[in-house]
Design goal:
Oligomer: single chain
Largest sheet: 2 strands, antiparallel
Shape: globular
Helix content: 10-25%
Length: 84
C-alpha cells in the first residue's frame, strides 16, 4: 500500500518529505509523465513548510497510534496529537 512495503522501502511508516528513490506512479511515468509534476511537488513542499512554521509544535500522543485505512489510496482516519 503506497510505498509501505518494508522489503522495498526503508522506514516505510515514517513521514520523510526528503525521501530519496521514491518509486511511485502518482504523476505517471515515461512519455506519459505529467508536465506539471515538478511544480506540483515543489508547491506541496513549500505549502507544508509554511503551514508547519505557523502552527504550534506537535507530536503523536504517547500510547496512541494513527488509525489508518488502505486499499488503492492510503489514508489516516484518526490521529491524536499532543500540542505544545
Amino acid at each position: 500500500i503506497a510505498n509501505r512495503d518494508p522489503a522495498e522501502f526503508e522506514c516505510p511508516n515514517e513521514i520523510d518529505l526528503a525521501r530519496e528513490d521514491n518509486r511511485h506512479a502518482a504523476f505517471g511515468y515515461g512519455p506519459h509523465r505529467c508536465l506539471g509534476s515538478h511544480l506540483a511537488r515543489r508547491e506541496i513542499v513549500i505549502g507544508l513548510e509554511e503551514w508547519l512554521a505557523r502552527i504550534p509544535a506537535f507530536r503523536i500522543k504517547t500510547g496512541t497510534e494513527p488509525i489508518t485505512f488502505g486499499g488503492h489510496v492510503f489514508g489516516i482516519e484518526n490521529l491524536i496529537l499532543d500540542w505544545s
